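JOB MANIFEST
job_type = single_chain_structure
chain_count = 1
residues = 198
[input]
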Amino acid sequence: MVGTEGVLRLYDEFNFPRGDKFIRRHVGSCEGERLRDTAYSPQAGLKVAALFEALKGLLIILAGCGLLALLHRDAQAFAERLVLHLHLNPARHYPRIFIEAAARLTDARLWMLAAGAFAYSALRFVEAYGLWRARSWAVWIGIVSGGIYLPVEAFELIRRPTVLKVALLVANALLVAYLSFVRYRDSRELRRRRSSGD
């Protein structure tokens, strides 16, 4: 098939009466078809989901590195400075819980928390790789791991609604819904191929 650019060149050379809109609409191009298919394909959505998961993994790695930075230091003093730096009242409920939790941190607990953060980020990166490569196992990981958080996020939103909690719940729900749609569509396509092949 001649590409759109080639047809437009012929149009210019021979001065056909029809415009380029007609040619683009009725002839199309290999490049245009590929771009149009990519813009609406689930692969583009899976790549966005993969980037989202990779970003979550990166944030968790940064948190793990922050935990390791607290080794052999006074975590409670750091927590108090952080609360004051953020202009929070240390006597309030959540800042007080944060400071008390920091006071109970030992080097062994910091290592354990950092190891957990690195393991969790590894799972996020594996999922991001699989989503980028459109692997069905990665879609399942995304559905299950995202679906586990939905009830917790909904409960937290009902308990104390904030804009951040709403944004997280909506983003996670959209991700799970999209991945569920992709999985459903792929399984339906597979059943259709099997039935037509038999």
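[summary]
The mean pLDDT is 81.
The first helix runs from residue 4 to 14.
exit_status = 0
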